[in-house]
Amino acid sequence: MSRSSDYISGILSGALVGAAIALLYAPDTGKNTRDRLSYKLSNYYDELNELIDQLRAEKELLVSEAKEKGDQVVLDAKEKAEGLIKEAEDLLESIETAKKAAKEQG
Q1: Using one digit for the tens of pLDDT, what is the confidence trace for 55-86?
Q2: Dihedral of CA 10/13/38/22: which sign?
Q3: What's the Cα-to-Cα distance from 102 to each of 91, 95, 99, rounded to whole Å?
Q4: What percent of the chain has pLDDT over 90?
């Protein structure tokens, strides 16, 4: 996400620097310069909105992937826990069997 925020800051700072330079060196009338500036700012605004939409889509994808991975981790943990419980039950059963055998001999 840092890469995206750097990209957005670069676009905004580039737009501001470009606007300042355009105003300082404009050979055209004030109205034409304002119209061009307004057009460029409108384009930058549209680009920024597109980037925001892309970031939202990426966020949704990442959240979805993270949720899937989290669900898989939970499933894996449940399976391992069930395996450990089964092993513990088998061990308890073996101990009980050994106790009964020891009582019968003793």
Answers
A1: 999 999 888 998 999 999 999 999 999 999 99
A2: negative
A3: 16, 10, 5
A4: 32
User: What contacts 2, CB < 8 A, 6 or more positions away?
Assistant: none
User: Is the CB of residue 44 less than 8 Å from the CB of residue 7?
Assistant: no
Dmax over Cα atoms in the chain, in whole Å? 113
Domain count, the chain: 1
Residues constituting the chain: 106
pLDDT band at 10 (very low <50, low <70, confident <90, very high): confident
> CA nearest 11: which of 56, 67, 51, 69?
51
- Is there a contact between 21 and 33 (Cβ–Cβ < 8 Å)? no
The mean predicted confidence, pLDDT, of the chain is 86
Domain enclosing residue 39, as ranges: 2-105
| Type of residue numbered 87 | E
